[in-house]
Amino acid sequence: MAGPRELAMQAKVMESERRRVKSRGSLDADIIIANAPDPVFVSDLEGKILQANDAVSQLLGFRQDEVLEQSLARFISPEETREFRAALREVVERGVMRNVVLNPRSAGGEVIPTSLNASALRDPDGRAIGVIGILRDMRELDKARAYAESLIKNAPDPVFVSDLEGKILQANDAVFALLGFRPDELIEQSLSRIISSAETREFLAALREVVERGVTRNARLNPRSASGEGIPTTLNASALHDTDGKVIGAIGILRDMRELDKARAYAESLIKNAPDPVFVSDLEGKILQANDAVSALLGFRPDEVIEQSLSRIISPAEARAFLAALREVVERGVTRNAHLNPRSASGEVIPTTLNASALRDPDGKVIGAIGILRDMREYEQVVRDLEKSKGELQEKILDLEKFEEVVVGRELKMIALEKELESLRKVVGRSKGDSV
């Protein structure tokens, strides 16, 4: 069993080793701090700067001896000093704090916007004795933000920024012009204030798509204006990222669809009331819309045609020909006189010709075709009647030619007989003259 002297010696060795490890750890930390590319400093819990690397001096323009052993209050405002000390308490309680805004004054008097991330500095017993802070110079980012805000403010389209819960953080004048609200009536308000509960759920689903894919397109929203009017719009949104690249919200662009919806309603009215059979299909041949003349032509009810593939009523070969015609519509904007022979509800095959033009989305992309059918039954009947008449006429011509041959032959025979009679008369006349 070790005596008191041996125990004392062991304690001294252990303390020496602990100090050596601590000294080595401090040396490693010093090297890391000194060579860090970002401005890094160490302060005690009162805000006195114990250590700072060259990047701090370069950021603020002070020499090392003008920074070390100085209170951070020398470089920041009294209000920010209070916020920094509150942040220090957060470091003690939670071990870390993030994105605290500080605006230290440089040696030249310039106020430099920065954000501070800090973690706890602990003694060997694990007690927080200060903080290790990393500053991020926000001047370039603030310039970028100011530029982005300028783009948003001056954009001709209604543009807004929201967080991931749908709260509106920023909106440009075009939004207020569209909806008729003052800025204070929209900013910091939830989008659910101006859209329905169902659309709020759809918008939050669109925000989830923004988080997952970075973008969402053509989401339908019908916000209520200050006067209570429901305004049809489409929303295109892209992700808003923080400085670490994390999605923290969305930048949304609204498109007022009232004029387009009027144009669509007018087009639908033209289609519905057109005397010819008119239908609208997508690029796979699915019928999206058809007027009453189509039902009258084919004998199907609208619900038996709408959302059905055209291949249901035409042959596989014609379905391929129709898809080829759709490709021509995409490439040239139009196709003419394609032959289709759809089957009616009664099974009759109806000869038609198809003229089609491109159906485009608001961005001008071809998304389908508007087709006009022409019933060719009467035309083909006329053609058949003409062919029949032509055949009958040809038969009559043949008969006439035969009759003509008979008549001409008879006339030739009569002429020959008359010549023979004339010849005989001459012979008889000479004979009488000789007798006398």
Write the layout of secondary structure elements.
Layout: H1 4-35, E1 40-44, E2 49-52, H2 54-60, H3 64-67, H4 78-94, E3 96-102, E4 114-122, E5 128-137, H5 139-154, E6 159-163, E7 168-171, H6 173-179, H7 183-186, H8 197-213, E8 215-221, E9 233-241, E10 247-256, H9 258-273, E11 278-282, E12 287-290, H10 292-298, H11 316-332, E13 334-340, E14 352-360, E15 366-375, H12 377-435
Antiparallel strand pairs: 1-2, 1-5, 3-4, 4-5, 6-7, 6-10, 8-9, 9-10, 11-12, 11-15, 13-14, 14-15
Protein model, in words:
This protein has 436 residues and is α+β, with helices and mostly antiparallel strands. The protein has 12 helices and 15 strands. The chain is 47% helix and 24% strand. Strands 2-1-5-4-3 form a 5-stranded antiparallel beta sheet. Strands 7-6-10-9-8 form a 5-stranded antiparallel beta sheet. β14 and β15 form a beta hairpin. It is rod-shaped, with a radius of gyration of 47 Å.
Distance between the termini: 200 Å
What order do the helices and strands follow?
HEEHHHEEEHEEHHHEEEHEEHHEEEH
For the residues shown, what is the average pLDDT? 85
The best one-word shape is: rod-shaped
Structural class: alpha+beta
Task: Describe the structure concisely for a colleague.
The chain is built from 12 helices and 15 strands. It is an alpha+beta fold.
Keywords:
47% helix; alpha+beta; 436 residues; 15 strands
